[in-house]
């Protein structure tokens, strides 16, 4: 019974943490709830933005009563080190908490169980692992950053039922409906950067901005091996958003466009090297919105973590449609790229499928 109550509170923590999506990078998403022995919620807090107070501190600051002998539930182990803010484990000890429930251990080597040990040594009861899978899914970007020192990469695509992203003439407006396009804006708000190809810039001239109310524009990244895009393209607009161009050539662009030279592989930008450049630039998550060629190249390079596919109930057919991945050749089913389904969401007329690549 108590475990079920912990799970109910942990789901509230996770939903609280999600309110800060797109604001905490490179830090994780964290929510915290303080409650008493009757499971009455005393206060809540979340890590609202990078550099701001951690969730536990915000929960403590918003409490209107003495916290001695109370409990706190948090989706990630309380930190034990000094960063931009003091250690949360120390704060919980100082306030006299008797119990701390954590969804998972922090993978950051500067924490990695040390917060839990510090709490235990102070005589605080610690419970770890409540809804751990859900907590890990919430912070999958942070986990990959910590374990692999690489950005988390997601391909977003909008297709017909038979996997087509446009007609052979390039017409793609609109395969999916307005509800799907609204979800795309929410998705853009979550990622540090949005990446596209020179081919997509030339064909579609996209803005790649976030039009969600209260959202923020992700960094725009353009891969342009041979500098074929025009400086007048919308992606290069000087609108206060960081713009990064990765190319193999010497480039002369306006000062607001950051240009990084990258080696090539098979006459195209070496994607692994490009991604490493972006990670060094403190970009921790990337949303790819491009055509089938770049989607295929990223998948073949083993760089993609998620596929978010908006599927409309339409059929275009091979003779008239372009695939969302191009040039794949598999002779046997056993050679397929395998994914695990995370979620399926029904929108107005379309469905949104989120899958993880199995590596």
Radius of gyration: 23 Å
Mean pLDDT reading: 92
Q: Number of DSSP strands? A: 18
Strand-residue proportion: 15-25%
- State the secondary-structure class: alpha/beta
In whole angstroms, how far apart are the ends? Answer: 37 Å
One letter per element, helices H and strands E, the order comes to: HEEHEHEHEHHEEHEHEEEEEHEHEEEE
Number of helices: 10
Strand order of the largest sheet: 11-10-9-8-14-6-15-18-17
Share of helix among residues? 25-40%
**Biggest sheet, in brief?**
9 strands, mixed
What would the principal axes of the Cα set say about the shape?
elongated
In the predicted model, the low-confidence regions spanning at least 5 consecutive residues are none
Describe the structure concisely for a colleague:
The protein has 359 residues and is α/β, with parallel strands linked by helices.
Structural summary, described in words:
With 359 residues, the chain is α/β, with parallel strands linked by helices. The strands form four sheets. The protein has a nine-stranded mixed sheet with strand order 11-10-9-8-14-6-15-18-17. It has a five-stranded mixed sheet with strand order 2-1-3-4-5, sandwiched between helices. Strands 7-16 form a two-stranded antiparallel ribbon. Helix 3 links the parallel strand 3 and strand 4. Helix 3 runs parallel beside helix 4. The chain starts with a helix and ends with a strand. The mean pLDDT is 92.
């Amino acid at each position: 019974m108590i475990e079920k109550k912990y799970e109910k509170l942990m789901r509230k923590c996770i939903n609280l943490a999600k309110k800060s999506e797109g604001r905490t990078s490179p830090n994780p998403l964290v929510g915290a709830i303080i409650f008493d022995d009757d499971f009455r919620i005393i206060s809540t807090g979340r890590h609202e933005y990078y550099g701001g107070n951690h969730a536990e501190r915000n929960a403590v600051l918003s409490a209107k009563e003495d916290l001695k002998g109370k409990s706190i539930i948090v989706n990630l182990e309380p930190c034990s080190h000094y960063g931009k803010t003091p250690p949360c484990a120390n704060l919980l000890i100082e306030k006299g908490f008797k119990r701390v429930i954590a969804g998972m251990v922090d993978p950051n080597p500067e924490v990695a169980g040390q917060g839990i040990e510090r709490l235990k040594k102070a005589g605080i009861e610690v419970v770890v692992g409540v809804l751990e899978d859900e907590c890990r899914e919430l912070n999958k970007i942070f986990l990959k950053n910590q374990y692999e020192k690489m950005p988390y990469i997601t391909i977003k695509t909008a297709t017909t039922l038979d996997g087509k992203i446009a007609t052979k003439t390039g017409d793609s407006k609109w395969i999916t409906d307005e509800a799907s396009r609204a979800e795309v804006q929410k998705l853009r708000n979550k990622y540090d950067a949005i990446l596209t190809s020179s081919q997509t810039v030339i064909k579609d001239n996209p803005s790649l901005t976030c039009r969600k109310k209260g959202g923020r524009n992700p960094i725009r990244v353009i891969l342009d091996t041979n500098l074929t895009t025009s400086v007048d393209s919308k992606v290069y607009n000087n609108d206060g958003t960081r713009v990064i161009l990765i190319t193999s050539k010497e480039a002369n662009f306006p000062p607001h466009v950051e240009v990084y030279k990258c080696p090539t592989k098979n006459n195209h930008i070496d994607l692994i090297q490009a991604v490493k450049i972006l990670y060094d630039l403190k970009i921790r998550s990337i949303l790819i919105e491009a055509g089938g060629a770049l989607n295929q190249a990223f998948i073949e390079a083993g760089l993609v973590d998620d596929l978010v596919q908006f599927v409309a109930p339409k059929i275009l057919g091979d003779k008239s449609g372009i695939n969302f991945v191009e040039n794949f050749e598999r002779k046997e089913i056993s050679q397929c790229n395998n994914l695990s389904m995370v979620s399926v969401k029904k929108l107005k007329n379309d469905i949104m499928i989120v899958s993880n690549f199995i590596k």
